[in-house]
């Protein structure tokens, strides 16, 4: 009987040992399996670490230099506008000096129209056209004979006669006579062939 009890005890121990071994092997297998864990959401705020900016010194220098650059930029347009004003003033002075300079000698034309060899042109003062002309000293008057008859352009007047200042002698049809007036004054002239023909030149 004692042998049966011992056998039962040994059998029980064997079963327990098998169970423990199985438990250990299952535990080892479970440990070897990959572990899947659910992600956890953290509500804790993590403050980022503030690192020192290695370019902070350069940025400060740039900020300090910036106003100086702006001032320089502001000065340049001002200088430019001054130069523009100076140039405009110089142009104005140049124009003024050009305007003040008297123009060079000029030549003025006076026509002796057709039909003046017969009295009548004196009534409308059209024996010489223009009959009275104003020029500057050094200018020239050129008389053009458009009439079919010959005429003269003689300094003086029909009453007192020739002054001797200028005389064309006979200017034939289609011909011309020119005289340059060097001195200022008033110069009357007439045609010695047709004394009703009179004109004048005023020289400034």
UniProtKB/TrEMBL annotation:
Residues 66-108 are annotated as: Disordered. Binds 1 copper ion per subunit. The keyword Transport applies. One of its GO terms (molecular function) is electron transfer activity. Its cofactor is Cu cation. Signal peptide: none annotated. It is found in: Periplasm. Keywords: Copper, Electron transport, Metal-binding, Periplasm, Transport. SUPFAM superfamilies: Cupredoxins. Residues 125-204 form the Blue (type 1) copper domain. Residues 66-99 have a biased composition (Basic and acidic residues). One of its GO terms (cellular component) is periplasmic space. Cu cation binds at residues 151, 191, 194, 197. Gene3D superfamilies: Cupredoxins - blue copper proteins. It holds the Pfam family Copper-bind. PANTHER family: BLL1555 PROTEIN. This is Blue (type 1) copper domain-containing protein.
């Amino acid at each position: 009987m004692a042998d049966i009890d011992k056998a039962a005890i040994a059998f029980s121990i064997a079963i327990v040992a098998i169970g423990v071994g199985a438990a250990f092997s299952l535990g080892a297998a479970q440990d070897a399996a990959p572990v899947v864990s659910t992600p956890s959401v953290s509500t804790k705020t993590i403050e980022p670490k503030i690192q020192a900016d290695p370019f902070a010194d350069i940025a400060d220098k740039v900020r300090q230099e910036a106003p100086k650059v702006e001032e320089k930029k502001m000065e340049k347009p001002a200088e430019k506008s001054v130069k523009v004003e100076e140039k405009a003033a110089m142009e104005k002075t140049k124009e003024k000096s050009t305007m003040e300079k008297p123009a060079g000698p000029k030549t003025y034309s006076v026509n002796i129209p057709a039909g003046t060899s017969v009295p009548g042109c004196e009534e409308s003062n059209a024996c010489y056209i223009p009959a009275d002309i104003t020029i500057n000293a050094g200018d020239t008057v050129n008389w053009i004979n458009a009439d079919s008859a010959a005429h003269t352009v003689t300094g003086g007047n029909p009453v007192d006669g020739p002054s001797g200042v200028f005389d064309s002698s006979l200017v034939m049809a289609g011909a011309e006579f020119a005289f340059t007036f060097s001195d200022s004054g008033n110069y009357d002239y007439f045609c010695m062939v047709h004394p009703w023909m009179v004109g004048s030149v005023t020289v400034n």
